[in-house]
Design brief:
The protein is of the alpha/beta class. The chain has helices spanning 6-12, 30-39, 58-65, 76-81, 84-90, 101-108, 115-122, 135-139, 141-152, 178-186, 223-234, 262-272, 315-320, 338-348, 359-362, 386-402, and strands spanning 16-21, 43-48, 93-99, 127-131, 156-157, 161-164, 170-174, 198-203, 208-211, 214-216, 238-243, 254-258, 278-281, 288-290, 309-311, 327-334, 353-358, 367-368, 370-374, 377-380, 384-385. Helix 2 crosses helix 10, helix 5 (84-90) packs across helix 7 and helix 6 packs across helix 9. Bound molecules: ligand PMT. Ligand PMT binds next to helix 11, helix 13 and strand 16.
């Protein structure tokens, strides 16, 4: 059996697959199927009918998918974790494999009498069925009429294959192999513009401790970095976001690492930078930190308090020194001579691209106005919402990285 193609790997990155398992002997192949989806960068959540649990255990599927398995519509604990409607909305694709003749018949008639048929009814995502049944059941006019009706309603039918069956018969009705199901699923998605690229993005402010209750920080909200992370993941990139403390949450498709200080951020970046194609330093990193962090709260004894500050490591410059180095993108929030100061930073830090912006307008704002500066060019991007601008920035990065 040929291994699945590179294109499948790319188009399944960050995709959310709801794998429905019904009660057929081929259910055992779902272990391998889940492993292959994960290998292609997809996230898998599993819903099983009662009969399916006779063929493969929910524990196996939980261990392989890394997520709790949905078994029962009336399970209050599972509903509290991710309710069935939320799960139906979460999916980019619902794949039912194996799909028994009984399940196909129930779905044809719009029944919602267990967790899986309910999810199929409730989702707006594309639905694919991988039939698996005895060859006579497959050939039966009832099954064929159900499948015709489902195809007309837009269901995708993957297979079945032909060959020896568990019952001893030979003919059509075998569930396709996991690699084939991966190929068919991948073909339903476009390959994103950033597929195959790994991004490391820093965002938010750093906090530099003075004592256990006080710190030095700045006004960065993280909005620009989170917009870039979200848009890069949506375009198919694998994204690691290293974030200072902010009140935002990134989509599940973004791997987020929370840090506090500039030194923590540097450590997290260096631990995650190998194999990155692109590094984007959006974080407003504190340039200095107190030389000493008091172990106890500093008392207000005198009229003045003098803090000695020492320089923090320059994270982006460290990344730009790596051999080989990723494509390195910086930001500069300036209050005056915005483009001139931006150019100076691009040069001094050995960056490939820098987005200079007006510090008095950008911090914590939902929109941004930037000048893109490269070693040999500079131009403005249209002022817009940070997600819209993030898409333009990523287009530019993709052009430069892909050549
Ligand atoms: O978070 P938001 O509210 O959405 O605001 C967005 C933003 C204003 C934070 C963002 O648009 C921005 O401009 N970020 C960079 C802030 C800045 O002025 O950085 P800088 O000039 O100190 O540093 C230049 C570059 O070096 C940046 O890419 C920065 O991440 C990096 N740097 C700086 C210092 C340091 N010790 N390590 C670094 O990596």
């Amino acid at each position: 059996m040929p291994y699945f193609s590179m294109v499948s790997m790319l188009s399944l990155t960050n995709k959310r697959i709801l794998l429905g398992i019904t009660g057929g002997i081929a259910a055992y192949k779902c272990a391998e199927l889940t492993r292959l989806f994960a290998k292609a960068g997809a996230e898998v959540r599993v819903a099983m009918t009662q009969a399916a649990t006779e063929f493969i255990t929910p524990l196996t599927m939980q261990a392989l998918s890394g997520n709790r398995v949905s078994l029962d519509l009336l399970d209050t604990e599972a509903e509290a974790a991710m309710g069935h409607i939320e799960l139906a909305r979460w999916a980019d694709l619902v794949l039912v494999a194996p799909a028994t003749a009984d399940f196909i018949a129930r779905v044809t008639h719009g029944q919602a009498d267990d967790i899986l048929s309910t999810l199929v009814l409730a989702t707006n995502a594309p639905i694919a069925l991988a039939p698996a049944m005895n060859q006579a059941m497959w050939a039966d006019t009832g099954t064929q009429s159900n499948l015709r009706s489902l195809r007309e309603r837009g269901f995708h039918i993957f297979g079945p294959g032909e060959g020896a069956q568990a019952c001893g018969d030979i003919g059509l009705g075998r569930m396709l192999e996991p690699e084939q199901l991966i190929e068919h699923s991948a073909a339903l998605f476009e390959v994103g513009e950033l597929a195959g690229l790994r991004f490391v993005i820093t965002g938010g402010p750093t906090r530099e401790a003075i004592d256990p209750v006080r710190f030095i920080t700045n006004h960065s909200s993280g909005k620009m970095a989170y917009a870039l992370a979200q848009e890069a993941a949506a375009a198919g990139a694998q994204v690691t976001l290293i974030s200072g403390r902010v009140n935002l949450s990134a989509p599940e498709t973004v791997r987020t690492l929370d840090v506090e200080s500039a030194e923590d951020m540097l450590t997290a970046v260096m631990e995650n930078i190998s194999d990155a194609s692109v590094f984007i330093g959006v974080a407003a990193v504190a340039d200095y930190r107190p030389r000493l962090q008091a172990e106890e709260k500093i008392k207000k004894d005198g009229e003045n308090l003098t803090l000695e500050l020492v320089k923090n490591p320059d994270i982006i410059s460290e990344v730009a020194k790596l051999e080989p180095k990723p494509f390195v993108v910086g930001f500069a929030a300036e209050t005056n001579s915005i483009v001139e100061n931006g150019k100076e930073k691009l040069d001094k830090k050995n960056l490939d691209l820098l987005f200079a912006n007006n510090a008095t307008e950008t911090f914590n704002s939902d929109s941004i106005s930037v000048t893109a500066i490269t070693p040999d060019n500079e131009f403005e991007l249209a002022t817009a919402n940070k997600n819209v601008v993030a898409r333009e920035m990523l287009k530019l990065i993709a052009e430069k990285v892909k050549g």
